[in-house]
Design brief:
The protein contains 15 helices and 13 strands. The protein is of the alpha/beta class. The chain is elongated, with a radius of gyration of 28 Å.
Length: 338
């Protein structure tokens, strides 16, 4: 199969008109399975101690970055402690008490919220982010102790899919809560037209709405729970089949295989389907405009021609067969795209 599910006919009609594709980074452009690549120490903790505190803290989180830290801790045999007073700071990070120490792990915005100065490591962070990694700050008792770097591999199919989408005339916009440096490094690798970075989960729908106000026909592709409002806001919401049920429920199109090449197939299928419908309407209009008057005897006063009911019935059947035959040409497209 083509691996594209349209929820309704309106989605098919709108898909061909899309000129701007907004894509979430994690799980859409990337594998969605991040891995810890390095830990930069800044204070008195050694690498295992820093990892143990971070993993102990992330036990209460279901974020993909949290899973990466927990997996890394498991691989290194770290013994975790239960977090107390766990707090999730939406779009920023998490904090809790670990063995009597106040631990926070997250982005620069979380550090600023907790009045922790990040300027001394700003240059180092910028260098790391230029390598397309996500950098998380680990603070213990109000002091920066480590930078945890997590890389999220780009899907193998993504570069080719973006190239094909550009050929279809789409402007690609990457939407992410990641830092601008990291986002721009990924965008440069993939030749993405525009980057909207450091976006909080509840701001994604607002970004989509802004593009719509500029007169853009917007499709939004995402896979997470926090993508659902943006998927619903877009003219065409596209959910990855490998994502959450909430995202798929909010979207009008679901890509079974969960990669961007499905969007290329969806656009081509949409254009071919609507063109086929227009052709069938034209054929039916011309056929009936000529056939019905003749069957009614409009030529009889002038030429004495009167159409037999048998011939009229056969002609009507031929009309239906020709339209069905034209529609079946879409099967050729399916074979070509798969």
């Amino acid at each position: 199969t083509m691996g594209v599910l349209f929820k309704n006919a309106e989605a098919i009609e709108h898909m061909r008109k899309v000129d701007t594709l907004v894509v979430d980074k994690t799980g859409t452009l990337t594998e969605g399975k991040p891995k810890v690549t390095r830990i930069e120490l800044l204070g008195s903790l050694d690498e295992k101690a820093a990892l143990t505190l971070a993993a102990s803290l992330e036990q209460g989180s279901e974020h993909p970055l949290a899973m990466a830290i927990l997996d890394h801790a498991k691989e290194t045999g770290s013994t975790l402690s239960p977090p107390e007073g766990f707090q999730s700071h939406t779009g920023k990070g998490v904090s809790a008490a670990i063995e009597g120490r106040n631990v926070a792990l997250g982005n620069k915005a979380l550090m600023e919220e907790m009045s922790i100065n990040t300027e001394p490591v700003a240059q180092k962070v910028a260098q790391l982010q230029a390598e397309a990694v996500t950098v998380m700050y680990l603070a213990v008792d109000g002091k920066l102790e480590a930078l945890i770097c997590v890389a999220n591999p780009i899907k193998e199919t993504t570069p080719r899919a973006i190239e094909e989408l550009h050929k279809e005339g789409l402007r690609i916009v990457m939407l992410t809560g990641d830092s601008r440096h990291t986002a721009e490094a990924v965008a440069k690798k993939l030749d993405i037209d525009e980057v909207v970075a450091e976006v909080l989960p509840d701001q994604k729908a607002k970004v989509v709405k802004e593009f719509q106000h500029k007169g853009r026909m917007v499709a939004m592709a995402g896979d997470g729970i926090n993508d659902a409002p943006a998927l619903a806001q877009a003219h065409v919401g596209i959910a990855m089949g490998t994502g959450t049920d909430v995202a798929m429920e909010s979207a009008r199109v679901t890509l079974v295989k969960g990669d961007l090449t499905g969007i290329v197939r969806a656009i081509k299928l949409s254009k071919a389907t609507m063109k086929n419908i227009e052709q069938n309407l034209f054929f039916a209009f011309v056929y009936n405009s000529l056939g019905v008057p003749i069957a009614a005897g409009v030529l009889y006063p002038f030429f004495g021609i009167l159409l037999s009911p048998v011939i009229a019935a056969a002609a009507m059947s031929f009309s239906s067969v020709s339209l069905v035959g034209n529609s079946l040409r879409l099967e050729i497209l399916r074979i070509t795209l798969t």
